[in-house]
Design goal:
This protein has 92 residues and is α/β, with parallel strands linked by helices. It has a single domain (2-86), classed as Rossmann fold, CATH 3.40.50. Helices cover 48% and strands 22% of the residues. The protein is built from four helices and four strands; from the N terminus they run E-H-E-H-E-H-E-H. It has helices spanning 12-28, 39-45, 56-62, 78-90; strands at residues 2-7, 33-38, 51-54, 68-71. The protein has a four-stranded parallel sheet with strand order 2-1-3-4. Strand 3, helix 3 (56-62) and strand 4 form a beta-alpha-beta unit. Helix 1 (12-28) crosses helix 4 (78-90).
Length: 92
């Protein structure tokens, strides 16, 4: 499974988002390849992803993409990440 962590610039917030996704996956016993992309290249990379994790604002900018998009309000809230990933992974 491939998860795309999308941030505005592909720098600090993207790395934080990737680390939180990886921690959440570990806590729920799932494995995935988690890649970081900035909003500029995310649409192209989305074609190969199974799931996208990002903010609500960036999800709106992504528009209609193939994989399911999970929006996270607070990148450091691991419980939110776990809850939303569990829900999304049930459908995959």
């Amino acid at each position: 499974m491939k998860i795309l962590a999308v941030c505005g610039m592909g720098l600090g917030s993207g790395l934080l988002l990737r680390m939180q996704v990886e921690k959440a996956l570990q806590r729920i016993g799932k494995q995935a390849d988690v890649e970081v992309a900035d909003i500029g290249v995310a649409r192209a990379m989305a074609q190969t992803a199974d799931l996208i994790v990002t903010t609500r604002e960036l999800a709106e900018r992504l528009g209609d993409v193939k994989p399911r998009v999970i929006t996270i309000s607070n990148f450091v809230d691991l419980e939110e990440m776990i809850r939303k990933l569990k829900e999304a992974l049930q459908d995959l």
